[in-house]
Amino acid sequence: QPNAIKTYMWAIIAGGAFAAALSAYRLPVEQLDLKFAVLAVITVVASSRLTSKIPRLSSHITVSDTFIFLTMMLYGGEAAILLAAVEGLCSSLRVNKKVSTTLFNSAVMVCATFLTVATLRALFGSIRELSHEGYTPLFVVAVCVMALAQYVFNSGLVAVLAAYKIHRPF
To answer: What predicted TM-score, i.e. pTM, was given to this entire model?
Structure first.
């Protein structure tokens, strides 16, 4: 069981590192501005501190997804993925000191956001362009899918590790 836990954690860390590197490569830097910097600071400083403890586990959940979603809509998926990486590191560093756990937590945020962006692109095209068209019914559906996808991917990745740790089925 301990080997399965470590293997799973490092597989997610590797996946998160790949997704972050790909996002950094694809990031349209010219779109980032002072507003992005302010949003990033608020996300990392404020949302990483607003947490709730998850019962039966030594884990916490943050409110950062809202800010990650806003980043996704205003600046695109790559910016949101990279911001999720930094937020995941900062929020994890506050509650634990193990390097592997900190990297895993950040990688989960990266992987979940990466998969959410891929889902949105597959179903709706560019969420950034869709958000600039106003509050259309399609935009509202896209936001609902965004929230559902992020929740399912994030919770699913964490639930697998939790199941390993407490010796319960997924």
So the answer is: 0.88
